[in-house]
From TrEMBL:
This is Histidine kinase. The keyword Transmembrane helix applies. Residues 143-219 form the Signal transduction histidine kinase internal region domain. The keyword Signal does not apply. GO terms for cellular component: membrane. Keywords: Kinase, Membrane, Transferase, Transmembrane, Transmembrane helix. The chain crosses the membrane at residues 21-40, 56-75, 82-104, 110-128. InterPro entries: Bact_2-comp_sensor_kinase, HATPase_C_sf, Sig_transdc_His_kin_internal.
Length: 346
């Protein structure tokens, strides 16, 4: 297992669903195209050598991108399947066979050479991708540590348990609901495995958190308007919404001692998921809201790092304050998350 883990840390397959990854791939391919003639022992001129290599590189690149597009749409679970690497390798080999026999009509004379160069290039690309992800690893570890120590804050845990104790005799149903939601949230916090979730699951966890706060502080004080118009099967980072809503309650409602309206809005626009969270905002200079806002910026920073790791530059998060409102806007590419059935049998 340690050897496999070391290999995974050294080589990582690039996610061709991300436009920034495709752009980097094109730049590296063009760079390789101009570099190959320099190490070739062919008698052809430099320009002729570039043309010679471009005749097979660009058809292969086009085939790889088309394969990645259809695989991600129809069989996205192939990357997580037990034999996914072998299947992907055979698909790549079939692309080279088609290019050599159909496009170049060389009857396979250059197949081994081209496939060897491709695998050499692929290993370099996977090494670069792993290095890029490992560069983000400290931020991900920091986010994970923050999740265990601060995401569900100790004061929230103690206050929730005290609220449940006080409700056991007078309102046993509310006490039971509070404890069940609290258990679900901690189970989600400590869940191991996949680093992605679905928007529907994120909405459910966020609603369970809000239900706890409404029981604890009152429905009149914690008010939430849900405008969920995006598909539930959209893939998202794990625990995307709950930390943001916790910040909204902590900084926008609890610290002001006044009722506050929080708005959660999601929608699908073409191929992107848009999420907006708004909560009341009082400048930290105000004596009414003197609690530090450091936790808010930390949660946003950690979320930005997680979005970068998962979507590269295809995701965006912005925050701003205006007219007494703190707003967080998130844009994600719409990708359907593979179901558990597909992971097992896909």
């Amino acid at each position: 297992m340690s050897i496999i883990r070391q290999i995974n840390n050294t080589f990582a397959a690039p996610d061709l669903r991300n436009s920034a990854t495709v752009v980097r791939l094109l730049i590296i391919v063009l760079g390789s195209l101009f570099f190959l003639p320099l190490i070739s022992d062919s008698s052809l001129s430099y320009s002729a050598e570039i043309y010679h290599h471009s005749k097979w590189i660009f058809p292969v690149l086009l085939g790889i991108l088309i394969k990645a597009y259809f695989v991600n749409i129809f069989v996205p679970s192939i990357k997580e399947a037990p034999y996914g690497v072998i299947i992907t390798y055979l698909l790549n080999l079939s692309i080279f066979v088609i290019v050599d026999f159909v496009v170049l009509k060389t009857n396979g004379r250059s197949l081994s050479q081209h496939f060897f160069l491709f695998n050499l290039f692929l290993l370099g690309l996977m090494y670069y991708e792993a290095s890029r992800r490992n560069g983000l690893a400290p931020s991900i570890s920091e986010a994970r540590l923050s999740a265990l120590t601060a995401r569900i804050r100790p004061h929230f845990l103690f206050n929730s348990l005290n609220a449940a104790i006080s409700l056991i005799r007078l309102r046993p149903y509310d006490a039971e609901t509070l404890l069940e939601n609290l258990a679900n949230l901690f189970r989600a916090q400590l869940r191991d495995g996949s680093q992605s979730s679905t928007l529907g699951q994120e909405i459910e966890w966020a609603q369970e958190y809000i239900a706890i706060e409404q029981i604890r502080m009152g429905h009149m004080r914690v008010q939430v308007m849900w405008q969920h118009q995006a598909p539930d099967d959209a893939e998202t980072p794990h625990l995307l919404l709950q930390p943001l809503l916790e910040n909204a309650v902590f900084h926008g409602v609890e610290s002001t001692h006044r009722p506050g309206m929080i708005t959660v809005f999601t929608k699908l626009n073409k191929s992107s998921i848009y999420i907006r969270i708004e909560n009341p905002y009082t400048p930290p200079e105000s004596s009414e809201n003197a609690k530090p806002h450091k936790g808010n910026s930390m949660a946003l920073h950690n979320l930005k790092e997680r979005l970068t790791l998962m979507y590269d530059n295809d995701a965006k998060i912005q925050s701003r304050q205006l007219d007494g409102i703190f707003r967080v806007d998130i844009r994600l590419p719409y990708r359907k998350k593979a179901s558990d059935v597909n992971r097992l049998f896909g």
